[in-house]
Amino acid sequence: MNHTWKKLNEKLSEALGSVLPVVAIVMVLCFSIAPISPSILLCFLMGATIIIVGTMFFTLGAEISMTPMGEHVGAAMTKSKKLWVIICLGFILGFIITISEPDLQVLAQQVPSVPNMTLIVSVAIGVGLFLVVAQLRMLFGIPLSHMLVGFYLLVFLAAIFLVPSGFLAIAFDSGGVTTGPMTVPFIMALGVGISAVRSDRHAANDSFGLVALCSIGPILAVLALGMVFKPDSAAYVPPVLPEIENSKELWTLFCVGFPTYFKEIAIALFPIILFFAIFQVAVLKLNRNNLKRIIVGMIYTYLGLVLFLTGANVGFMPAGNYLGQVMGAADYKWLLIPVGMLIGFFIVRAEPAVYVLNKQVEEMTDGAIPAVAMSMSLSIGVAVSVGLAMLRVLTGISILWFLIPGYAIALGLSFFVPKLFTAIAFDSGGVASGPMTATFLLPLAQGACIAVGGNIVTDAFGAVAMVAMTPLITIQVLGMIYQIKKKYAAKVQPMPEHINALDMLDDDAIIEL
Prior knowledge:
The chain is mainly alpha-helical. About 80% of the residues lie in helices and about 0% in strands. Helix 4 crosses helix 5 and helix 18 runs antiparallel to helix 21. The chain is globular, with a radius of gyration of 23 Å. The longest helix has about 40 residues. The chain contains 22 helices and no strands.
C-alpha cells in the first residue's frame, strides 16, 4: 500500500508539472489580452483539476497494466513463429485498439460530412493493416527509413492528384489522433515484446517504429474516403459555451459529462480486455500476482481516462474555442502565433502518452536518451508546429505547403541519423498529437478561424497534423547532436592499452575479416 501511495504521489507531481504551466498561460491571457466570461474560466479551472487527477491515475495504470500486456502479447505472438498467426492477430489488435481510441471519437465528432462510424471503422482498418506491416518489418529487418519514404510518397501523390483539397487536413489529422493514450502504450509495448524474442543486435532499434507506421494507415484510409464524401465547412458545429450562475451548476455540468465517458471508456476498453483474457487462458497463463497487478492497473487506466476526457472535453474544449474567437476578432490577431507557440510548448507535456514514450525511450536506451532531452525536443517541435498552424488560420495557406517540405526534411534526415532516433522521432509525432491537442489546440484554431472568416475544414483542421510533423525533425536533430557528441568523445578519450583492435569493429566487419 505504501508503494502505491508513493507511486501516486510521484505521478501527481508529474501531472502538476505538465498541466499547471498551461493553466498559468491561459490565466495570464484571460486577465490581459483575451478576457473570457467567468463561466468559461471556472469550467476551464475545474477541467484542469480533473485532468491532473486523471493524468495521475492513467500514467500509473498504463505503467502497470497496458505496457506489460503489450509486451506479453508481442512476445507470445512472435514465439509462435507462424506468419499467418502474427498477421491475423496483428490486424485484429490494430483494429480493436483503434476503435477503442478516445481521440478518434473526438475527431470524428468534429469532422463534417462523414458519418462518425464510417470514419472510425475506415481508420481502424488502416491501423490494423499497417500494424501488420510494422510487425513484418521488425521480423524481416526491413529498414524503417525505406518504408517511410515509400509510403509517404504514396500519401502525398494521393493527396495532390486524387483527393479534394478540403479533405487533406482532416486526413493528416486522423493520422495524429489515432495514436493516442489508449493506442500508444499497448503498441509500443508490443514492439518491445516482439524485439525481446529476437537475439540480434538490431532488435532494440527495431522495437520503435510501430507507432510511426500505424500513423500512415489512417491518413490513407481517410484520403480514400475523400474520393467518396465531400467536406462542407457549413456542417461544422462549434462546442457549446457553458453559462453557469453558481458552483452547484458548475458541478452539475461536469456530472452530466461523467456518465458519458464512463460508458465510452468502458466500451473502448472492453475489446482489449476481452482479447487479453482469451490470450491469457489460451497462451500466456500468467501467475496470479502478475494478473492481479494488471487488473488493478486496468482499473487505474479506466478511471484516469474517464477523468481526463471529462476534464478535457467539458472544461478545455469550450475555453480553447472561445479564446481563439476572442484573439481572432481582436486588432492584434498576429499574437495568435506567439501565444499558440507558448501554449504548444507546454501542452505537449500534458499529453498522457508522451510520458509513456519518454520513459520507454530512456529505459530502452539505458539513459543514453534521457527523458528530459526527449521532453524538451518534443516541446520545441510542437511550439513550432502550433505557430505554423496559427499562421495557416490567419492566411489560409494550403497545408501541403507545410507538410511536403516538412516531411521531405524529416525523411531526408532519416538517412543520416542513427536508425534508433529515426524510429523514435516518427513514433513521437503520433504520440505528441493526443487528446490535449484535439480538445484544446484544435478548438483554439477553429475559434480563431471563425473570427477571421476562414474555412474551418481547410484552414483550422490540420493543427493536429502540424503537431505530428515537427517532432519528426526535432528528435532527429537531437539524434545528430547525440551522434556528433559520441564521435567527439571517442576522439578525445584515449584508447585503453588492453583493448584489442578487433574490439573496435562491429559484428559485420569482424565477419567480413
